[in-house]
Amino acid sequence: MELYLAILTLAVCLSADAQFVHNDFKINGCSDTEKESVCGSDGEEIWHADFIQQMGVNTLPDFADALRFPGFYESSIAAQEACQQNLAVCIKAYKSPPEEMDPPETSIYPKNAVQLGVENSLVCHVTGFFPPPVNISWTKNNVVVTEGESLSRYRPRNDGTFHIFSSLDIVPEERDIYSCTVNHRALQGQAQTKIWGVPETAAVSPRLGPAVFCGAGFTLALLGAATGIFFFIKGAATRNTDTAEKEKHFMQWTYQ
Please, what's the largest Cα pairwise distance for the chain? Predict the structure, then answer.
């Protein structure tokens, strides 16, 4: 049985004007087969060690100011050596206790307001699980889909668990059904599935709107024209009947 040992360091930082409080963290973890060294702030990862490429990786988004972490990778190697030594001691002392696990909680929602025929994204948020990893899969109308799928990095939470985002690019159409399925060791084979369907109240795409309204207007115009023709023919028939009656009475009066 694997044992995962993590060293968690939290620091509270105040800005210059002392109006904002930030929680910084550093996590060093190891198991029989895995290594992990992560730094972050307010629950968001900003740096991690890539022990395969033997380098540190800055994971801030492109628009953020570039940060440098001199010496972090070297200190992570030293922390891993200490972690492996502590792991051996813990395994011997606690006789390989069962690994602690927390099951995930999953939610699914659209990124933007839903409009039929307009590109959008579905987001599957998986949170509160330990340890990584989780497996996330998508379906559309009961068919597995992978095109347009993306996955974020694992992000640590303040309670020591993790969360992750998976997204799927979609073009909503009427009666489409999507699902997000999550597998994790703590679920013991009982996959967690969330389902999302295109709402009946979804607005018509602005690109489709003029065509729809134009079609409706054309139909109404045809109906109006047909109604006008009907009353015109009916009126003409009525006038012909009245004329015939008048001629009949005139002929009778002349004969008398």
Answer: 136
Nearest residue to 37 (alpha-carbon basis) of 1, 82, 3, 67: 82
Least confident of 55-59, 99-103, 106-110, 207-211: 207-211
Q: Which structure tokens are listed for 78?
A: 């030293």
The pLDDT value given to residue 2: 45
In this predicted model, which residue has the larger pLDDT, 107 or 12? Answer: 107
Region of 54 on the Ramachandran plot (φ > 0 left; ψ -120 to 50 alpha; else beta): left
What's this model's pTM, rounded to 2 decimal places? 0.60
pLDDT single digits (tens) 204-214: 655 544 444 44
**Ordered alpha helix ranges (H), 4-159:** 72-94
Provide φ and ψ at 242, rounded to 5°: -65, -40
Lowest-confidence region among 36-45, 57-66, 175-184: 57-66
- In the three-class reduction of DSSP (H, G, I as helix; E, B as strand; rest coil), residue 21 is classed as strand
DSSP 8-state assignment for residue 62: T
Residue 149's nearest CA partner among 170, 132, 133, 163 is 170
What's the CA gap between 226 and 229, in Å, rounded? 5
Q: Give bridge partners of residue 66 from the DSSP assignment.
A: none
d(CA 133, CA 72): 24
Q: What's the DSSP call for residue 102?
A: B
- Which residues are CB-contacts of 79 (< 8 A; sequence separation ≥ 6)? 7, 28, 37
Strand ranges inside 143-221, DSSP E:
143-145, 149-151, 155-156, 162-170, 177-183, 192-197, 203-204
Residue count (the chain): 256
pLDDT bin (cut points 50, 70, 90) of residue 239 is low
